[in-house]
Amino acid sequence: MAEQALPVLDVRGLKTVFRTRGGEIHAVNDVSFHLNRGEVLGVVGESGSGKSVTMMSLIRLLPSPPADIRAGQVVLNGKDLLQMDAEDLRHVRGAKVGFVFQDPMTSLNPVFTIGSQIMEPLRAHMGMTKAAAAARAVELLELVGIPDARKRLKAYPHQFSGGMRQRVMIAIALACDPDVLIADEPTTALDVTIQAQILELMKELRRKLGMAIIWITHDLGVIAGIADRVLVMYGGQVVEHAPVGELFANPQHPYTRALLKTIPKISGAREARLKVIEGQPPIMTGAPQACPFRARCEYRHDPCEKVNPLRRGGGWSSSGPGP
Questions:
Q1: Which residues contact residue 6 at a Cβ distance below 8 angstroms, ignoring those fewer than 6 apart?
Q2: Distance (Å, whole) CA 61 – CA 16
Q3: What is the pLDDT of residues 193-212, one digit of tens each?
Q4: Nearest-angstrom CA–CA distance, 183 and 203
C-alpha cells in the first residue's frame, strides 16, 4: 500500500540556467513539485514564466550548451532522470514519458507518413515487428478518434487538419503507454471548437488509461476544466501550488490574484472591463534575491526589494506562504 502511494514523479530543487553572451539567464529557480498516478497537474503562467523550460528540463530535452541544469532531482518511479546516461534516458523518453508539443504544424515530420511516425517509438522502445507496430498504430489512431485509421496510416501530415494532427501527436505520445504525459499548450494553435474536442479526448484517455498528465497552458479556463492541482509559475519559480478548486476560490499570491482578474467575465454590467497586469515579466539575468513580481505588484513594500518570500517555503500554498 505504501508503494502505491508514492508519486510517479517527484521533482526537487530543479535549477536550469542558460549561458548567453550577455550573461547567465536563470530560467528555472528551485522548482519542486510531485505528480501522483492518474492525476492532472496544471502549470500556468505568462509567456516567459518558465513553464516549458521546466518541463523540458525534466527529460533533458534542452540543448546543452547553452542550457545547463545546475541542480535538482527528477525522480520517475524511483530513478533520478538527471543522473541517467544518454542511452538510458533515450529509452525513458517516449516509453515512460510522452510529450505533446504545442504546435502540431511543425511537430510532425512532413516527409514521413503518419503510420511510420507512430510506429517508430513502438519498434525502438518496445521491439515490435513492423506488422505488430502497424496494428498497434491503427489501435492508437482509433483511440484518439481518427476515422478510417488503417487507411490514414499511409497519409502525410499535410493531409490532416490541425486538430487531426494534434490527435496524431497524442497518439505518438501514448504509443508506449507512458507513465507521464506532458502536454505543452496542445490546444493553443487550434480553434475553440477543436480545443474543446481535444480536452474531452484527454479526459477520456485519462479515464481509460489512468496515466498522469502535466498540462502546460496560459489559459486558466482550460485548467479549471481538466486539472486536479495547479502550479502557478512566475520568473522561473513556483509562486503558488494548490488544488484547482482552492486556487480559484481563494488565491494567495498577488500574481495568482492578478491572473484571475484577467479572465473575461460574463456580466451585464457595462462598466466591467478586462483587467491587465501592467508591466513586463522579469529578465532573469541573476539568481533571484528579491521578489520577482515586485515591479508589477499592487501590494509591494520595502522588504520586497531585498527579500524573495518564495525562497522561504518554496512557493505559496493554499494556506499562505511557507514558514
A1: 78
A2: 12
A3: 878 888 888 888 888 888 89
A4: 13
